[in-house]
Amino acid sequence: MSDATFTPRVFSGIQPSGGLTLGNYLGAMKRFVDMQDADRFECIYCLVDLHAITVWQDPAALTRNTRELCAGFIAAGIDPEKSILFNQSQVPEHAQLGWVFNCVARMGWMGRMTQWKDKAGKNAEAASLGLFAYPALMAADILAYHATHVPVGEDQKQHLELTRDIAAKFNHDYGVDFFPLTEPVIEGAATRVMNLQDGTKKMSKSDPSDRTRINMTDDADTIARKIRKAKTDPEPLPDSVAGLEDRPEARNLVNIWAGLADLGVEDVVAQNAGKMFGYFKQDLADLAVAKLAPISTEMSRLMQEPDEIDRILSRGSDRAREIAAPILRQTFDIMGVVRA
Ligand code: TYM
Known about the structure:
The protein is mainly α and about 350 residues long. The chain is built from 13 helices and 5 strands. Helix 4 packs across helix 7 and helix 9 (about 220-230) runs antiparallel to helix 12. Ligand 1 binds near residues 24, 142 and 153.
């Protein structure tokens, strides 16, 4: 079935598990804002708290992190009137369709997910069943809205392929063309922002060292210091993109510049060819502070108004349900589930 049959609709999600990073911002949130502002899609953005609890969350921290993430979305430019912004657990259709997809997805498919293997590690026996089923709930998030486009960072690619497999198997098993085969949108220079001290590792909120990442709550001085201290190599910047090959730290800083400035990697290289990293990092620090510090300031301001944040999430959940509930009802009808 072609996407033309479906309303062009964007869905994406971020876990409220604390510590939003520059990776989340450039790989996801900033691109969510671009898609919202392009006015080509109806946009639905979700704080996926049910995904966060697949590993234990301290209750008070989960509450705080959910509100902080909501503040982050708004501070970054998501307009809760234009886009639908809500938290997953307030829309029960996610968990209900997630169960249906637990029955569609195969154990073998789930066992091949690299994020499952990484997160469960050697002790898979002790991991939660929810962590194993995580990608089926993610498919439900997307397909409960018949979303056609899903902007994510590169690390989510395999989960989105699985979402297509689940949609295709459901459609095939029931002889319908009901769920769309969603398009992953993994575009731009910064779909994989790397660790500031080791350009071969992804920037992550779970790295024990805070120097490896920029947090969206960092103040201007901290942002500038972390960039100035980022690992680089002794060579100046090359005059072509090919010259960044085998220089992961250099490549990462160029990608971050391109992501922050909405430029192509070629443009950043052309602007900075031959520059020593000391100077490049100073200019990058200035750019990062100019782009990120206002977001962190606005997040702190919004965090002073938790009732307003809760109201926004509640209103967003009502709007989300208006779309998801009929799709779940139709899913049950297709399956022959009896309801009054
Ligand atoms: P999460 O919460 O780990 O990350 C949220 C988004 O940030 C992107 N991201 C990065 N992008 C570039 N460089 C990085 N270093 C980096 N780190 C994180 C992620 O790719 C993601 O887009 N499973 C998802 C949440 C989810 C979801 C969904 C996403 C649940 N349901 C439905 C899309 C659609 C996750 O754990 O993201």
